Amino acid sequence: MISHRNIAKLGTIVLVLANLTLPNVTFGQQIPSLRDTFKKDFGIGTALNNAQIDERDPQMTAFIARQFNMATPENVMKSEVVHPKWDTYDFTMGDKLIDFGEKHNIKINGHTLIWHSQLPSFIRGIKSQDSIRTFFTDHIKTVAGHYKDKVYSWDVVNEALNEDGTMRKSVFLQYLGEDFVTEAFRLAQQASPKTELYYNDYNNEQPKKRAGCIELVKKIKAAGVRIDGVGIQGHWHVGKVPLKDIEESILQYAALGVKVMFTELDIEVLPRNFQGADVGQRMVANEQSNPYPTALPDSVQQQLAADYEALFKLFLKHKDKVTRVTFWGVNDANSWLNNWPIRGRTSYPLLFDRKNQPKPAFYSVIGTKK
Ligand code: G3I
Question: Above pLDDT 70, what percent of the chain?
Fold first, then answer.
């Protein structure tokens, strides 16, 4: 008698042999494609890191091209990278990403023009309003101008709000006042008239921050400036995904006449004593901080799958309003959550494991289309 276990082993052997004997069958082609599965619903994106943009691993490149039709640079278009000195710009990696997108039919979302974090170090030495304004204006004009007609969209302003909906005390607020957000959109529109322009933040599905975000959108529009969409980053926690707030946010943002996107989706499974993605926040490690160094327990794996399933059901319910869902990383090994808010942990927040193998959450997401 052939047991189930032997049949499973036989299946694995057949798959391995198929990959060995047919060189064109690249790794990962046996599983469904997210981009194809949701092609009539919304774009499916990922964040790409340096190694992926550089195409250092051909199997990884093929995997990305098969699963995703949109991509956001995880770091290489941030101001500290593209604008390292007052009068020096470096578009090397960003340009490679543009080539990557053209080659693999992947639309690029530029990330990000104005953000209080990952600023060039020279900003710290600037203490005058005039110089900050010059930096702000030149940066947007030059970077958005360089990528005119090359990126599909820009996260024009990122994370300008506090949790209570007031404006974050950034260097831009301090020197330029609250209008810097509208101004950034005006400059981006002038530099790249055909590019979609978005405001992006985390926790902006939460009622108070959402209210602040709605005010921002209204202010931009009232000034006669274009804003095409709001990005809800979507850095959530297993078993605690705020589905009601997310649905309410989709409806309220869409009612303003803007597109809604989930721009940095991941679901944290490790312990954390706060919510959100404020990169300045850190936690001190203790014995309980890294509970799953070798594997994720089945109970958590199942909860993760259930959370992703509920999210994608909601996205599909509102597919007339939701235009893109982007994961913050291709697989668990790439996730920033392995190093934040504590360095060197082992996290499991995405649909693919460290070898790009689909997790139960991948199949639960695909299953929402059945
Ligand atoms: O570039 C240096 C490199 O030279 C050095 O060797 C290495 C050693 O640690 O550090 C490198 O810099 C790291 C950088 O990523 C590039 O890899 C920084 O330490 C690290 O802090 C930085 O983290 C990024 C983080 O933004 C910083 O703000 C994450 O990769 C990136 O995923 C994360 O992305 C943000 C979004 O842009 C906005 N929303 C929140 C999201 C998650 O924090």
Answer: 92
